[in-house]
Amino acid sequence: MPSPAASPDSLPSAGTLAARYRAVRQRSLALAAPLSAEDAMLQSMDDASPAKWHLAHTTWFFERFVLGAQAAYRPVNEAWDYLFNSYYQSVGPMHARSRRGLLSQPGLAQVIDYRAQVDARMQRGFEHGGFDADPALKPRIELGLHHEQQHQELLLTDIKHAFWCNPLKPAYRDDLRPSPGQATALEWIGCDEAIVEIGAPAWPGAGDAFAFDNESPRHRVLLPAHALASRPVSNAEYRAFIDDGGYRAPGLWLSDGWARIQQDGWTRPMYWDDDLTREFTLGGMRAIDPQAPVCHLSYFEAEAFARWAGARLPTEAEWEHAAAQVPVTGNFVEDDMLHPTSPCTTAPCRSDVAQGDFCGGASRDRTTESDIGEPATHVAPTPEPAATPPAHPHQMFGDVWEWTSSAYSAYPGFREMPGALGEYNGKFMCGQQVLRGGSCVSPRDHLRASYRNFFHAPDCWQFTGLRLARDA
Amino acid sequence: MPSPAASPDSLPSAGTLAARYRAVRQRSLALAAPLSAEDAMLQSMDDASPAKWHLAHTTWFFERFVLGAQAAYRPVNEAWDYLFNSYYQSVGPMHARSRRGLLSQPGLAQVIDYRAQVDARMQRGFEHGGFDADPALKPRIELGLHHEQQHQELLLTDIKHAFWCNPLKPAYRDDLRPSPGQATALEWIGCDEAIVEIGAPAWPGAGDAFAFDNESPRHRVLLPAHALASRPVSNAEYRAFIDDGGYRAPGLWLSDGWARIQQDGWTRPMYWDDDLTREFTLGGMRAIDPQAPVCHLSYFEAEAFARWAGARLPTEAEWEHAAAQVPVTGNFVEDDMLHPTSPCTTAPCRSDVAQGDFCGGASRDRTTESDIGEPATHVAPTPEPAATPPAHPHQMFGDVWEWTSSAYSAYPGFREMPGALGEYNGKFMCGQQVLRGGSCVSPRDHLRASYRNFFHAPDCWQFTGLRLARDA
Amino acid sequence: MPSPAASPDSLPSAGTLAARYRAVRQRSLALAAPLSAEDAMLQSMDDASPAKWHLAHTTWFFERFVLGAQAAYRPVNEAWDYLFNSYYQSVGPMHARSRRGLLSQPGLAQVIDYRAQVDARMQRGFEHGGFDADPALKPRIELGLHHEQQHQELLLTDIKHAFWCNPLKPAYRDDLRPSPGQATALEWIGCDEAIVEIGAPAWPGAGDAFAFDNESPRHRVLLPAHALASRPVSNAEYRAFIDDGGYRAPGLWLSDGWARIQQDGWTRPMYWDDDLTREFTLGGMRAIDPQAPVCHLSYFEAEAFARWAGARLPTEAEWEHAAAQVPVTGNFVEDDMLHPTSPCTTAPCRSDVAQGDFCGGASRDRTTESDIGEPATHVAPTPEPAATPPAHPHQMFGDVWEWTSSAYSAYPGFREMPGALGEYNGKFMCGQQVLRGGSCVSPRDHLRASYRNFFHAPDCWQFTGLRLARDA
Amino acid sequence: MPSPAASPDSLPSAGTLAARYRAVRQRSLALAAPLSAEDAMLQSMDDASPAKWHLAHTTWFFERFVLGAQAAYRPVNEAWDYLFNSYYQSVGPMHARSRRGLLSQPGLAQVIDYRAQVDARMQRGFEHGGFDADPALKPRIELGLHHEQQHQELLLTDIKHAFWCNPLKPAYRDDLRPSPGQATALEWIGCDEAIVEIGAPAWPGAGDAFAFDNESPRHRVLLPAHALASRPVSNAEYRAFIDDGGYRAPGLWLSDGWARIQQDGWTRPMYWDDDLTREFTLGGMRAIDPQAPVCHLSYFEAEAFARWAGARLPTEAEWEHAAAQVPVTGNFVEDDMLHPTSPCTTAPCRSDVAQGDFCGGASRDRTTESDIGEPATHVAPTPEPAATPPAHPHQMFGDVWEWTSSAYSAYPGFREMPGALGEYNGKFMCGQQVLRGGSCVSPRDHLRASYRNFFHAPDCWQFTGLRLARDA
């Protein structure tokens, strides 16, 4: 099993860190480049933020927690501390989240200038050893970069939702093109009961790679015998669920899920057109690719689909254990598709899977989907069952975040980071579900097997899909 | 009594109309000029609209109801019909009012270009007699210009609210300067019971000046004997109400008003700072001028103040009858103050009042405020009572819209305009109160004595104040 | 014109007052008698109150404002002051209106005992001259009796709504029987422009009959020329409105009304079954009598119907002037139908109308409905037009409260009653519409031509209907 | 380790079952006996139900799922199927939960008669072998009895909340008396890492004791090394949290918890008086016993307290493993206190703990609370530390339900019961937290170590407290 400590993400030297700083910061600007100042101000719901705010808040993070750690530091603009704090109660009050879209001023140009000023100050710090005296600073810079990468993804998901709210259905970019792939059989990859390790060592620590505090400590868990699907659920399979009356059958839904779809009249994934053949993407309205992973599902929808399919969602431990066996490859933001794709589109089929041992022993249950047990066997037959079932699952990383059945909570021995940054993750450990694997709008070097994302059960504006699991 | 038919507002010739069209349309652009594209997109509450939307909707009005009257007309952009319709159900469905702020596209530049294209088409119509064949068209153009003037005022009140929601409290314009005036005694101008005429002849009609349908027909009403205050209530007087515990005394308030101030924690006018010495204006935060009319009051606050002062609000008939005796002079948008001012600031004191008969007979009750009867006499004494009480009230027009005690409803014999434009006014005749006189952000030539504005009792983002009245 | 001062309702002597006290108090108990203790606790919406609460609050009114006026008075239970105060802020805080249904204790039996104790104390006062010393007390008793009569009506309307909320649709009484009548032509009764007097002299005053403060002062108004329908709109006529698509035509509705019926899915009067043939009554589900006045309409529905019919609602002055010409006869709570009935059911046809002069002059416009002017003439033809149009309208009192186009506001010269009882009416003068005439659940001796009832535009759980009017 | 299969709760014979049926059914009536018909109708919030409804719904459960399994069955009243179904979508539509308080009819007497009729029919079934043919029936009866026991507890918690909403703060029973005990030191009982079994075998099955489906299957979990507090947190300790500013320190709270206490103004447990010395109980207002377990905490409050105390909540597996070592003794509904009590009140101190091995090995961490680690050590010192730390925790059962850090979700291998009863538990597995151990209003024979209760994080109307845990 690969050691997490061997990851290239280990705490970098200042030189490396400076280079990474520039690269990450530059990408945020690049992602915002297709947006007008007006586009960058859109806030379409309380949960989403304007692109401009993402640009400013990520900058504030460095200014407040890195530059501001020096007592003599004078902020670029003191009044902005209130505007661009997100939820750090311990550093002071903040502008209401739901009203971020009301900040026409400072304008986008001012925010970009703010970024430049902070970047220049950071650059001086890198060049003159300004971050050497306090050992807390470099880890905070590293954290700030991962923080900014999270907001890069949010910038894209938030603007997608905002554009979808415009009756003109404008595209974020006109040059994006779909890359339809081919169907792949859904297969089951078994795993015997085993004690495995998941999670990451607490960071920062000697020699350890970056991980958020919520991923630590690395710890032992007992996995039950189970099987995991070889790939995410596809649009075609989800369409079969709809066609079979899935949205009209209360018995398939969690109680809260049924209440929600009744109340809000859900009959399909949020971005699907009502003819079920087209969907809204960052490239505008587009035909739905039947083979691509279904996307923008709420937990309620993912859970109902799994029940309909006679299966269940994986736990996060089951997911992580499988993911730790495969390299972090897939369809990421760098691939510039900005939409989930069929398997085999971005890489030679199966080449992303290191051959060999899975699950610490012989997979005892390599079967095609036609084996899905009674009572419900709904996943549509695939054209040509693979002759040789895969040893490892595909598309674990990228494409779509995969809902797990695990509620977001603390690992045994979890400790929040000290100080204000302890508010980063821990205080959200209630009422949310864990998602794993990253999406087509996640930066590749931001992800890892132990990464825990979390959203509320009704949320569907992230690139969220599912992979089936079942008891062995 | 001056005949309304003699007004210079009579239906103009095409030449005049074209000139007026250009002037009104140009002013909208001038009012939006201080705004960035981001500012122009702000929608701070459901009741308010983005400046950009005002610019677009007023243009759509001409395109839809004037240019579009020709069967062969091809719109500048068909998709915008849905976006820029406000509430005309009979011409089709529309974008939800509360979501106008989510339209980053079309951008401000596109909207300005849309204006230019429609203006050019209108210009061709003026030049080539395109509006001569259908007798309905010129009246619709005239209506469209008054419609646009209404939106000019809304553009200013809406952006004021939006900027106030920004913790930075940005100014709409940095070059606005207060013009403090001097105190003027509040005096009472009496009026005996009389049958008077109010309202305006139905327009369009032979020789008649423009008026909205809700001002017609001109009709007889019986005024009871009463007295009207010589000027609006001042900031100093309203401050005395606050200092006397006005916001804590349930007995002063309408039941709905008390519920509202309890629920939302109102303790002062919306734009006042909590130290009661500064207020938010279109020029930013500024010291409150004690002598200027108090502004941005809800009906609830105006009504409570009047009760505290031992007085009442005037009815709209009382107000109109008095206003018809004085010229339409005052502090308007053209004065470029964009804030209410003390009396005597914009014009030689009293010179705005034609000397002579008021109310069709001798004013029997010319008294200074110190005569305000029992039980409550709260309006603060003024420095030097005027030696000669005025025959006519001051500041009837401009400065602040004055809440009346009259609910907005149909005059006897009222007929809505035919067709879609019948939705302009009539369908709002429920649950709102009439305001009279215009404000410091109203265009001068948009106002007249018979003009009826209307808002809901809790509304306070318009420039709204009050003038006291009392039973004789 | 009959003088209001001649009314039999003049301030009674203590003997008369004591008798009236016993009668009114007894009727409240009789109205509650069909209810179980559980029924009497129902509160089906914030606007409605439990029957038990009505019984207790009306008792509290006498205890607080009459018995409690003596300094030495010891209440039956001090803790109940908080529970049974409705909205009198000046006598102290109160239990939240929306939570009256949560008071299982004191139980119904305790409340009935409370009534008995207060009645006994009142009786001693009547017998021993206890109300003679303070001249304010007898008027307060008189007011308290009218107050209790208002709550008698509310008790019935509130329990009707509560039972309707029970899927079993229980009847308040099983012994109620419909009394179908016969069709009567709708005719128009004209009235020339005239100055008339409406309202009632301020009460209490020398020799004056009881009236609420909101009915005073009696004052002069200028009525425009107009015509009033001879009877309320019938169920058959309202059914024609529904069948003609009335609920689907936005052009017929006030803006707020259209929003409301869209939001809540209204397609018919609240208590009508969806097959449009049966309705819920205090006697349970029952076939709709086509000839009976339509009932339980909101103002929105009444106003939309009038527009559809090419007519309008009357103003309250128009209504009152006509009503003052006819005796207070009709279908009241004493008739024990508890539902509106066809004309001619309870009294010999037309006998309720004094022959002679209407409107202070010759009625210039006595026409049958077939004269209803353009553009819309929707009121269904009646079987046999009356040979001689009536001089006075029918069914002005009883059956259904008639919505007027008048917003509820102060008459010129209005003064609230002094002290806490000033909160009775005046503080509600905003955002409501006036209704006139009483209903089939109003006590007969509680009504008069000047009586002003008021509810919000969406309210429809009272027995509310309409009578058409039109400009002459 | 005791085998769950040895429990006396194993599937009973018909004779035993009939006796148990009578006993359980009788207790429901006994619990409702102190209530008037009005009390029994109270519904103080959407989450709570009227006592009458509990009595009816539990009866409906037997009628629908046991008696109704016979095709020829004729219900006592067909219309009640709609009224008394709770949430079983698969058997048909149901009355809205939030409107159960509007059912004055059928009245309490009718519901009690309904119970008698169903009981008589059940009795005939027991006597005549009516439940022998279908093997599903006896398990359903057994389930129905446990279902009814759940509603017995809800009946008490719901009526407590309802009475608390009455400003008179009536007692459910006047004869309840507090039994103050003495302080007990909080000690820590350690447990090494171990693989343990939790859960219960799927029921019904050969020889197995009753358990709900959500407790199964019995399965292996890996417990991390940890320590569990010897007793629940006391009122005195919680008071120290309040006095230390716990409700004003955002850093102690989950994000949703902080938002909630800000929004609703929470400053203390729901039933505590604002002087922090008295609390509302089923016996009315009463002095708070400092040594008794703190009660009626939301998950938010429990979690914040634990953080303040430098500890955490236990997982449900940690809790269950410890609980499985001790007998099901404690303060239950049969003890007739109906309120949590100090330790040592109901039983000889420590006698409830079987001496011997805990946690499958030597407890390595038997310490008193003074050992609570850095950084926060807030649990107040106790008068006299125990000389010998306990081998097992006290008060695991009864007194208060103990919040765990575990979100309510499916065990590995979970299968819902087939048919409509599959809706019993599984569809609520989202967004709730697990509680363990039962309370002072739980029936003793309804509880077991594997029992999983679940509520939402803000809920505090159940008898909910907490026990601290910490990482070893």
What does this protein look like?
4 copies of one chain form a homotetramer. The first copy, chain A, is an alpha+beta fold. Chain A folds into 2 domains: 4-165, Up-down Bundle (Four Helix Bundle (Hemerythrin (Met), subunit A)), CATH 1.20.120; 187-471, paralog of FGE (formylglycine-generating enzyme) (Alpha-Beta Complex), CATH 3.90.1580. In chain A, 26% of the residues lie in helices and 11% in strands. Chain A contains 9 helices and 14 strands. In chain A, the strands form 5 sheets. Chain A has a 4-stranded antiparallel sheet, with helices on one face. Chain A has a 4-stranded mixed sheet with strand order 12-11-10-13. In chain A, a hairpin with a 2-residue loop joins strand 5 and strand 6. The longest helix of chain A has 29 residues, at 137-165. Chains in contact: A-B, A-D, B-C, C-D. At the A-D interface, strand 3, helix 7, helix 8 and strand 10 of A face strand 3, helix 7, helix 8 and strand 10 of D. Chains A, B, C, D: It comes from Lysobacter concretionis Ko07 = DSM 16239. Chains A, B, C, D: InterPro entries: CTDL_fold, DinB-like, DinB/YfiT-like, EgtB, Sulfatase_Mod_Factor_Kinase, SUMF_dom, SUMF_sf. Chains A, B, C, D: This is Ergothioneine biosynthesis protein EgtB. Chains A, B, C, D: One of its GO terms (biological process) is ergothioneine biosynthetic process.
What topology emerges from the helices and strands here?
The structure is a homotetramer of 472-residue chains.
Chain A: H1 14-32, H2 51-65, H3 80-84, H4 108-127, H5 137-165, E1 187-191, E2 194-198, E3 219-223, E4 226-229, H6 235-243, H7 255-264, E5 278-281, E6 284-287, H8 299-308, H9 316-323, E7 330-331, E8 367-368, E9 397-398, E10 401-407, E11 433-436, E12 453-455, E13 464-465, E14 469-471
Parallel strand pairs in A: 7-9, 10-13
Antiparallel strand pairs in A: 1-4, 1-8, 2-3, 4-14, 5-6, 10-11, 11-12
Helix pairs in contact in A: 1-4, 1-5, 2-4, 2-5
